[in-house]
Amino acid sequence: MKKKRKEQRKGRKTTKKMWKLKLSSGAFIAPSFVGVLIFFILPFLVVIYYSLVDNPISGNFVFLDNFGAVIRNGAFKKAVHNTLTFSAVAVPLAVALSLLLAIVLEAKLPFRSQFRTFFLSPMMVPVASIVLIWQVLFHYNGAVNDFLGVFGIDKIDWLKSEYAQVVVIILFLWKNLGYNVIQRRYQKGNDARHGEHPHQFSERRLLHKAIVMGLILHGLYAPCPSKMW
């Protein structure tokens, strides 16, 4: 009887501890959940509602008419074409170059620290600042045209020409390669910590991880270059 009582008491104490743990965990998670609900989930639901009515004031239900109008719109078709082209070029390049850079940075090369700084520095600079720097460089009266003018090459309005897509892709790669290089090197170190020799880890498995993660991340966070060119 005494053993049963002790076991019951232990069970009650364990249950109370579990409830306290759940409550404390819920209290910590609640602010983040409320923020996600207010700033992400609710606006998403509102956008879905607006897409199914003619306008927010009258609120007449039109079902999929708005989607049909968008699909027939020429600007939308151009935006889709630009985005698909950008993704088809930039995402594979980001995956391949980040993997190559991660392998190169493992080697003992001269100026390796400067090389690493060049690709990691964009991670410490806000995106808005990088875009402004890029606009100054590729402006019609910017630094790139001044440099090309030394060789007698006419000025090019880069962001309004056929080269705009190339400029955006280079910007995207420079901005994201540093993070991807760190991710690839972490994957390599993680393989080594799980029993594989650092020089004998599976390149095929690392390549598979790099491609899958690169496609997912860049597919989610790649910008939509819609009407930039």
Architecture overview:
- The protein has helices spanning 2-51, 65-72, 74-106, 112-120, 127-138, 143-149, 164-193, 203-221.
- The radius of gyration is 26 Å and the shape is flat.
- Mean pLDDT is 76; it is low at 197-201 and 223-229.
- It has eight helices and no strands.
How many strand units?
0
Distance between the termini: 82 Å
Structural class: mainly alpha
Total helical elements: 8
Given as residue ranges, the uncertain stretches (5+ residues, pLDDT < 50) are 197-201, 223-229
Approximate shape: flat
How helix-rich are the residues, as a percent range?
over 70%
Rg, Å, rounded: 26 Å
Mean pLDDT: 76
Order of helices and strands: HHHHHHHH
Largest sheet: none
Strand fraction band?
Answer: under 5%
Write the layout of secondary structure elements.
Elements (H helix, E strand, L loop, with lengths): L1 H50 L13 H8 L1 H33 L5 H9 L6 H12 L4 H7 L14 H30 L9 H19 L8
Helix pairs in contact: 3-7, 3-8, 7-8
Considering the chains and any ligands shown, give keywords for the structure.
mainly alpha; 0% strand; single chain; 73% helix
In short:
The chain is mostly helical. The protein has helices at 2-51, 65-72, 74-106, 112-120, 127-138, 143-149, 164-193, 203-221.
